[in-house]
Design a protein that fits this description.
By secondary structure, the protein is an alpha+beta fold. The chain has one domain: Aminopeptidase. It is about 35% helix and about 30% strand. The chain has 4 helices and 5 strands; from the N terminus they run βαααβββαβ. The protein has a 5-stranded mixed β-sheet, with helices on both faces. The protein is globular, with a radius of gyration of 14 Å. It starts with a strand and ends in an 8-residue tail after the last strand. The relative contact order is 0.20. The mean pLDDT is about 85.
Length: about 130
Amino acid sequence: MRSFEVSGKGPDPRSAFREIVSKCNEEFGQQPRVGEAALADPSGSVLAEGGFIWFGLAGVERKPVGCAVMRRLRQQGETTWEVAELAVLPDFRRKGVGRLLVDALLRQYEEAAGEGEGLWAEVSDTFEG
């Protein structure tokens, strides 16, 4: 039985983020929703804007096997939140990693969002159930 945990930090988070998001988007023929700047430096374009990145870590070695990104968007005086990426490496899918990541994002949203600040996600129809 594998054990998983969710953390805001992983071993070398910059390269783990880039590897997981790139690999999963490539698999489905999609471009990362966070954009190239975030892939190069997630702390500068996601975290600096008030967003969050969570990693799914496997086993005692804490291997990054998934990640989720929630961006804070401010437009015309309004703030909304977007689940911009949710990616789990193929060998670790359907094992609860995605659920742990979504649960972490929802808890973070409840803590960080102000009154009337909505949360949204766009899901491609090319993904498996």
